[in-house]
User: What shape does this take?
Amino acid sequence: MTKEEVIGRMKKNLSLSRIDHIMRVVDTAQQLAERYGVDPERAEWAALLHDFYKWQDKDAYAAALETSGLSLDKETAASQELSHGWMAAEFMQSTLGIEDEEIYYAIATHTTGRSGMSLLEKVIYLADRVEPGRTHPGCEQLRSLAFRDLDRAVYIAMNQTLEYLLKNHAYIHPRTIEARNDLWRNITERKERIEG
Ligand code: DGI
Ligand code: FE
Ligand code: FE
Assistant: This one.
């Protein structure tokens, strides 16, 4: 399947605003990829596919998840927000036949992040959060930080997510916490190296 065919498929199941978001993530991911020396082709595939399963039809989504054969933890399986990345990664592997572990995890964990993220994973995580359509408070600073200090930007974005989840009494996936603490460690160790 070509990228154009993937976009055609997405237009059947996603809202126009979601398609626009995806195209802006592709654009931002490519800019960040260039900045951090990440393969632009892999960044493009990951960005293009990351929200492939943000289907509007929730029943159709539930049915697709049911037949996917994915084994997800209970909370992930119960939430489209937490599972859509895993569904998209699986689609890439099984239907598109793209065997690439780094792209797989960049897509699968784009919502939570994870401990030990690669540069590509960080680029996709941040592109999703700072694409020009995102306008929440603090977004402008995060966007500029994303191009100056990748780890710190991912760390700040994860803290914002945690604040949002706590405020809304939402379930916090352990991967979200592990990802944030892993970045916290990177930054703290780096600071110690510079200062000590
Ligand atoms: O798909 P997008 O809207 O572009 O963005 P996303 O996939 O990064 O995030 C989707 C939602 O998932 C967003 O509202 C934040 C939420 N989320 C992120 N981490 C967690 C989470 N929701 C829960 N319940 N728990 C988490 O750990
Ligand atoms: Fe998403
Ligand atoms: Fe997204």
Notes: The pocket of 2'-deoxyguanosine-5'-diphosphate (ligand 1) is lined by residues 51, 54, 79, 81-82, 110-112, 128, 161, 165, 170-173, 176 (CB under 6 Å). Residues 3-136 form a domain with the Hypothetical protein af1432 fold (CATH 1.10.3210.10). Residues 151 and 183 are 7 Å apart (CA to CA).
